[in-house]
Each structure stands twice: as C-alpha cells, then as structure tokens.
Design brief:
- The protein is α+β, with helices and mostly antiparallel strands.
- The protein folds into 2 domains: 107 residues, Double Stranded RNA Binding Domain, CATH 3.30.160; 167 residues, Porin, CATH 2.40.160.20.
- Helices cover 17% and strands 54% of the residues.
- Strands 5-6-7-8-9-10-11-14 form an 8-stranded antiparallel β-barrel.
- Helix 2 crosses helix 3 and helix 3 crosses helix 4.
- The chain is rod-shaped and about 120 Å long.
- The termini are far apart.
C-alpha cells in the first residue's frame, strides 16, 4: 500500500501540462531554479491587464512557457493559443527575468490588447523629452521707449526718439509707434545766413515675424512710416514756416534680449525707401532742400511687457 501511494504522487507531479505553483490549467510556466516563480509571472500578466486580486483571468487564451538554461543564458519555448490561432515562439536572453517579461507582455496582448497598451502609456510618458520646448506664451502687450540716430529725410544725421506700442504673439508682433527727429539746419551755399531749420514728427505701423534663439527674439519688421517735416525759415524778412509730408516703406531687423522679468533691451536698424518726399524753398529763391529717397536709422531702447 505504501508503494502504491508513492506511485500515485509521482504520477501527479509528472503529469504533462501541469503548471508549477498551482497555476490554472491554461497557464504553464516551467523554469530552472533562480528564475521568476509562476506567481511572479502571473503578477506581471495581471499588472499589464489591470487585474487586481483573485485568480488571473486569461479567458480563451492559454500559454505553455518553458525555460531552459543554455550556455551563459536561457532559452524560452512558448506556445500561445488564442481564438486567433496558435503560435509557437522561441526567445533567448542572458537573464531569465527578461524572458518572464516577454511571456507576460505576449499573454497580456493576446488576452486584452487595449488594456495592455493603456498600461504601457504611463511608462512612455515618463521617458525624457529629446527637446525641451519653450513654454507657450499667449498674447502680450508691450511699450517701448528708444533713441538713436537717423539719416534722412532731414539733412545730415539727426537724433531721434520714439515711443512704440506692440501686441506680441509667440512668433509675430504688430506695432504702432510715434517718433520725433530733432531739428537740423540747412542753408544756401551762396547765402549761408539764409536757410531753414527742419524737424519731423512721424507715425509708423509695422508687422514683425519673429524668430527665437533661446530667450532672445529676432523680429524682422516691415511697415510704413508717414510724417510731417516742418521747415522754419530764417535769414529773410517775414520768414515762414511750412509743412511737407514724408511717406516711406521701412524694413529692418531687431534684437530683443531679456534683462529681467518683463523688461527687454531692444536693438534695431532700419532702412527706409521714400515714396513722398518733402521739398522746401525760401521765398522766391531756388530750392533749398529736398529729401533723398533713401533713409536709415539705428536705435536702442527698453521694452516693458505686460500680460
């Protein structure tokens, strides 16, 4: 009787298709000592499927995975059956844990691919970004005061100041500005005591596509400048003051560099192409001055930004 009992016990242990660790009949994991246990593999599958507690539910899927040591690694022979068919695979790895993870993922995808992919999404989101994007910036306003020098439409080089308001998007800005060019004197060559003092007040409207280099912005501005050049004559009796229009297309790059929160340094160089040119004479004398069609200016200033 004792011999018969041992025979029955051995037959149960060696029965084909039996899972180690008391697993369900549709799950078999056999591996050498030191490899993950059947309970560990079942827990990996359950984690992929989002199953918590209770028995592992594989539905109509069954798997038989057997691992053997070979050389300095391990070889996995796996048979996976599902309603879609039967699949036999073999994988080799240096670590047995790697093969257990392959089995868990393959089984989870066969049982519920949607749940397995959803479980993978948080892992993907934790991967480091290859590029660190610049934080998105919404519409902002800015006010800028600047000063510099200008060539044209007044004679010679004139000091200039301006005040400009801007609406700023992440890669674009629109601007309206008001500028003043200080008085310059022009006289007749033959009559150095006769001439006029010229000054200009002008408004400018521009659009500026803007590139960025780190925190530095590089606007390229295009627009129209329109103003009044005033000439006040001198050196003759009953000298008069007259106003003439100036209209020009303007284009030029700029550079904005942040100093601290909300305050930027502004550097700019513009070229102007006159369309309407002012011209002046004193009484019945020949023409005293006519503006050239080309103009330029270079300015620097501070820009204050606000939400």
């Amino acid at each position: 009787m004792r011999l018969g009992g041992w025979s029955i016990a051995m037959a149960l242990l060696l029965a084909p298709g039996r899972a180690l660790g008391g697993a369900a009949p549709n799950f078999v994991w056999q591996a050498p000592q030191g490899c993950p246990s059947p309970e560990t593999v079942r827990a990996l599958i359950a984690n992929w499927l989002g199953q918590t507690g209770g028995e592992l539910e594989l539905g109509a899927v069954s798997v038989a995975a057997r691992v053997r040591a070979e050389g300095d690694g391990f070889v996995l022979d796996m048979t996976l059956k599902s309603p879609a068919g039967s699949d036999r695979e073999q994988h080799a790895a240096r670590r047995c844990e790697t093969l257990s993870k392959i089995v868990a993922l393959k089984v989870a995808l066969a049982v519920d691919p949607v749940a397995a992919l959803e479980a993978a999404e948080p892992k993907a989101s934790r991967r480091p970004r290859l590029l660190s994007p610049t934080p998105e910036r919404t519409l902002a306003g800015a006010l800028r005061a600047a000063g510099g020098v200008a060539l044209g439409p007044l004679p010679g080089v004139a000091p200039t100041i301006s005040l400009t308001g801007s609406l700023i998007w992440p890669d674009f800005r629109g601007e309206l500005g008001l500028g003043y060019r200080f008085r310059r004197t022009v006289t007749y060559d033959a009559l150095p005591g006769v001439g006029a003092e010229l000054e200009m007040l002008a408004a400018t409207g521009r659009v500026c596509p803007t590139a960025t280099l780190g925190r530095i912005e590089i606007p390229l501005c295009v627009g129209v400048e329109g103003g009044i050049v005033r000439a006040e004559g001198f050196g003759v009796a009953d000298a008069k003051t007259s106003d003439r229009p100036w209209v020009a297309l303007v284009i030029g790059p700029a550079l904005t560099v942040p100093l601290f929160a909300g305050v930027y340094v502004w550097l700019e160089a513009d070229a102007g192409f006159g369309i309407v040119l002012p011209s002046f004479r004193v009484r019945n004398l020949p023409r005293l001055y006519q503006a050239e069609s080309g103009a330029a200016q270079a300015v620097a200033g501070l820009e204050l930004r606000f939400p």
